Batch of 4 targets.
Target 1
Amino acid sequence: LPRQRQHRLNLRLIKQAYNQVFNTLKSWRRTPDLFQFLLGYYLISDGVVTMINFTAIFVAVQFGLGMGEILQLVVIFNLVTIPATIVVGLLHQKWAGMTLLKVILILWVVLLSIIVFGTHPFTPVIIAVGQGLVIGSTQSICRGLYAQMVPPEKTAEMFGFHALVSKVSAVGGPLMFGLISSATGNQRLAMMSVLVFILAGGWVLFQIPSLSSVSNQLETNN
């Protein structure tokens, strides 16, 4: 009997959680800028997730690296990511988040150009360093801007909604990479899809008028 009650409780909690998600979706007209931000954020996240999931396979195939060499690149990536994310967080306290995001998007274009066209044996190291500079920084900036946009009374609702929906939306980038790679047999071409997601997400974010004012507010205060 206690197990049955626990089972019913679990089902009720799951139902309540999904009902809350659908209720949040139905209320998008009240905060359209917030949902537009999430769309741009998820597009960028698709690119980030694709890079995280497929870079090891890419460098192994394109440059013939073994497991030991790939692990060394992972170490380099983490050594760069941690201080880069901290520095961007500090800069976000002084500079407008949208300004930082534009700089990061430029770095994304440079990095993906190196990934697609680079053939030098040292290219995998440059890729690891470049990813360390942009991946954590991109997520840090987007999360910071999202936190600034969410009304205080909706914090729990919107962050809960984001936690669930972001997991579902993250399949788009890897799926696109896999389809292009399978259809063409060219992983470099498949990596170009990452640039499409990153630039499309950035374009969506830059179309939000209220985001620029929110982004500049902290800079003005400082």
Note: Residues 117 and 216 are 36 Å apart (CA to CA).
Target 2
Amino acid sequence: EVPPVVLIHGNTVTHADFIASRLMDRLARTHRVIAFDRPGFGHSTRPRDRLWTPSAQADLLVAAFERLSIERPVVVGHSMGTMVAMAMALDHPENVHSLVLMGGYFYPSLRVDALLTAPVALPVLGDVMRYTVTAITARLMLRNTAQSMFAPREVPGNFFPTISREMMLRPVQLRANAEDAAFMVPAAGAMSKRYAELDLPVTLIAGEDDVVVDPQAHSVRLHDELPDSGLFVVPGVGHMVHYAALDRVANAIDAPLNAVSLDHFTSMTKDDLTLGQKPEMSRQ
């Protein structure tokens, strides 16, 4: 039986990121695909009745699985979404078939974005900032933020029209971004002590030129810690690796342990990647 696929987006964007990248359409050829807006993103809300840690977000999405009759999906996470996916697998292993983690952040390390955005997450002061100075700054910086996410490639022409600048700049989404950035380091510290508990297929996909999350410090390190995991490091690609590697993600879902070594994959040329050609690779 073909498992359903759940897509969990990263910070700044919404579920529409998976529409802009064409990943949803690609996966929908063979799977039932559900893309969630995490709490506070898109049209969703983020009540102040709890701390929206990755584990709290995972709990909410697992509760949604039952409502939507989603049984043991392949959970695909990008960036901050990888932390929610990981929390889901650790806290609700019976509800997850396998993990595909793209551009993931897995170990505690200095996050300048967390330091800069932390005040926006605070009640009262943050509320004022989100409607004034932060709203203006975020609007001015949005294109630069997107460029750093896609570097060394250009921002695709359909990115902002599909995801909507105004949706990305909603005050509640600015708060959600700030809170998530603040939770990343402590959540990674707590979860990284539990990775040995994982007993399901895990595939890691990262852009070799990612300037947002260092692939060596996170994806490669986690692959070393999980000897049965798969790892694909895609050359010539940055943080938004799913835009350039649709087939690679689809293959990871259908054959999660068909991994290749870093050396085999990095022998692939940028032209090959652009053309969607697949080099000869041996299974490791």
Note: The CA atoms of residues 78 and 250 lie 14 Å apart.
Target 3
Amino acid sequence: MNSQRVLVAMSGGVDSSAVCLLLRDQGYEVVGMTMRAYDLPHQFADGATEPDYILSAKELAATLGIEHHVIDVRKEFRATIVQNFIDEYCAGRTPNPCVMCNRTFKFRLLQDLADELHCDFIATGHYVRKQVVGGFHYLLMGDDLRKDQSYFLWRVPQATLARCIFPLGEMEKPEVRKYLDEKGFSFRAQQGESMEVCFVTADYRDFLREECPDLAATVSGGFFVDSAGRKLGQHQGVPFYTVGQRKGLGIALGKPAYVLRLNAEKNTIVLGDETELATQTFFIENAEFVNPETDAIHPELSVRVRYHSIPVACTVHTIEGDDRLLVRTQLPVSAITPGQSAVFYIGSRLAGGAFIANQRGIGAFIRK
């Protein structure tokens, strides 16, 4: 019988519910933690003072007879993750708040509470696996590649990963639902998927307008331009566009146009053909590799430039006099988007990651 304590991140949904049951069946003493980060109106039933996902987590904890803690970080979450989300769009970058939150909030809070409650391990419902190689703790893609979430976890520190358990890494989503159903939790087995960005319910542009009522007036009046700098028409403001966008541009050029680059300083947006989005060379910054001495130069290194994109073979190079690194890919990748993550793999093993940097000056490095 396993008597070790494990702290589980409980969201009240399908995956974390299955994790609690799986670990309990394996003999662990399960303790639950639910992070209250951001309240949305639709999460509250009439008269309820807590959102539905917290009530769901509490109900499961009571049913299983496990200890459960709610950590209220709404103020700090808004001041950091939400504000960063807004600031990045205003700077002409496209943020990934989940990447930021996993390091700054979710896994940090899990580790701190695990220490406080004397829990040996931390567990989450992420569809990833883990492997120790040369003393380093690596994440592996989940067996269910459609649900693999390794891309979002590249910033989780080694000390935290060493204590992590990922019970769903070798399962597929239908298996998880079936398991809950067989355990008598049919209602939970049929629950829908959670949102990717927990504080945005619809279009991020509407969120920006709600949070910053004066933003639209402040950033409007800039111009769409072509690659040669010729003005094509006015746009609504850099924060309301992202690299690779085609729909909703509000301009008719007689042919499909795509956002190639954003310049928040000049308030200009460069439009062009879809073929101009493809590249085999781009800059990254703030890179972190699990084993800095070997992973960045591994001959089988590949990179994902967005969630669910197929890893493409690549090499990483330093640039004299520049804090950025240069990535070259064997095959073209499309819509390189500053602010998003470039995540590196060696086979199915997550080797590291970085933020895609401003691509100013990249032309000098593109092989003709």
Note: The first helix runs from residue 14 to 25.
Target 4
Amino acid sequence: MKKMSQNIFDYATSELSQDAFISLMVSWYDNTEDSILKKLSIDFITQLYDGYNDLFLNNELPILEITSIKIIQQHHKIDVYFEVTDKNGDIIPFIIEDKTWTEPHSNQLQRYNDKIKSQSIKIFFKTGHLTEKDQKLTYEAQYMILDAKWIYDFLKPYINKTSNVILHNFFDYLTREFYNKLYTESGNKKTLHDWDCNDLKEGFVQYELI
């Protein structure tokens, strides 16, 4: 008999579980027991801020120095929403739309833009296959994409520095269910040449074949 998985993400497979993990990464800013998790949180938020600033704002924003973070769950039905207060007392909203294998729908990206009027950092966090529709809609609404490779590369250096079970579980699940399916061992995105007939049961392979 096959041994049952001890990884919680093998059972909590919905996007809500991924929402929770992203929120947890952000909340580790206030972690007082594991300095590595706090560093991971600061690094994650800073990379979102700097990446978005470089991609869409031509580096108009100042260097981010975080003094506090506030997570507001389901704010305007946004998957992950939090506010960062910087050293000047300015509040910077972060919007994260989170997907596994689905695409944006119901004009949701633009609706979030309309709800959050102030300058915000807007992220499309998708672990599954990125489609042309994903890229078109996120570009039009000015969301920065974080794909499975970005997330994998970001988390990998932290894995051997902390024994946090949730982090290890998510990284293991991400690697098996997303990264290994979409990328080669050398980190290149897989094409049709990298899949065989057994992979045709996967919807994203069928999509690429079509």
Note: The longest strand covers residues 91-99.
